[in-house]
From TrEMBL:
Protein family per UniProt: Belongs to the transferase hexapeptide repeat family.
Segments forming domain Serine acetyltransferase N-terminal: 14-118
Protein name, UniProt field: Serine acetyltransferase
EC id: 2.3.1.30
Length: 271
């Protein structure tokens, strides 16, 4: 009788590290063992864990955890890019946030990461013409996390939102890959026109706390927006802008400001 072949287990280093972190966390603090087991160790994949966490955080009297879980499971099953984006976002938080000491932390505790993953499910609903449900997800994210991301906005991979309070990203906004932003950032419009009215943020951009980028303008790749700035005009690539209204005050200071997270205007460490 021929030997039956078994399907190989897919290699997933990110998920393996999360499970290792989870087992270590349970040993270190048994009181959170139930949460860690239900949120991580009971699942076979990161996508399953993300769907469970999505349901636990965003369910309400209007929509049960079971229904929320089914919505997220359908999204992750249909669109594999959601899982890839989640892994990139996890690594972005781990590598750029000095307060993050394990890959488990964003999954369980960091509202910026959790809100972005919920937005991604909402965006999937939006692109599948299930817009009322997408709006419901947007509303729940705003209520639970204090972050308002329109489900029609387009956001790339490797996004890190530090602290993540009072973030607003409008309907026609576009955010590139490997972007970092801090709390109270607004990517907004400048009027009530119903057209392409929100900013387009390039790859590798660093947006400081409280910055407002308004209108259908482009912020070039690897540029830096200083904290508290109000940006009303396009920003060339690899520049630093600051002020109200924002003006170019110098070069970006390094090749990848979003990765270095350096917000001092005289450049990045080692320059």
């Amino acid at each position: 009788m021929a030997e039956r072949k078994t399907k190989p287990t897919p290699v997933d280093p990110v998920w393996d590290r999360i499970r290792d972190d989870a087992e270590t966390a349970v040993i270190a603090e048994p009181l959170i063992g139930g949460m860690v087991h239900s949120s991580v160790l009971h699942h076979q994949t990161l996508e399953q864990a993300l769907a469970y966490r999505f349901a636990q955080k965003l369910s309400s009297q209007d929509v049960s955890p079971q229904l929320m879980r089914e919505i997220a499971d359908a999204a992750y099953t249909d669109d594999k890019s959601l899982g890839r984006a989640a892994r990139a976002d996890l690594m972005a938080v781990y590598e750029r946030d000095p307060a993050c000491h394990s890959l488990l932390q964003p999954l369980l505790f960091f509202k910026g990461f959790q809100a972005v993953q919920a937005y991604r499910v909402g965006h999937w609903l939006w692109t599948h013409n299930r817009r009322d449900l997408a709006y419901l997800i947007q509303a729940r994210v705003s209520e639970v996390f204090g972050i308002d991301i329109h489900p029609a906005a387009r956001i790339g991979q490797g996004l890190m939102i530090d602290h993540a309070h009072s973030i607003v990203i409008g309907e026609t906004a576009v955010v590139g890959n490997n972007v970092s932003m801090l709390h109270s950032v607004t990517l907004g419009g400048t009027g009530k026109e119903d057209d392409d009215r929100h900013p387009k943020i390039g790859d590798g951009v660093l947006i400081g706390a409280g910055a407002k980028v308004l209108g259908n303008i482009r912020v070039g790749n690897c540029s830096r927006i200083a904290a508290g700035s109000v940006v009303l005009e396009e920003v060339p690539p690899c520049k630093t802008v600051a002020g109200v209204p924002a003006r170019i005050v110098g070069e970006a200071g390094c090749d990848q400001p979003a990765l270095s997270m350096d917000q001092i205007l005289n450049g990045c460490p080692g320059e």
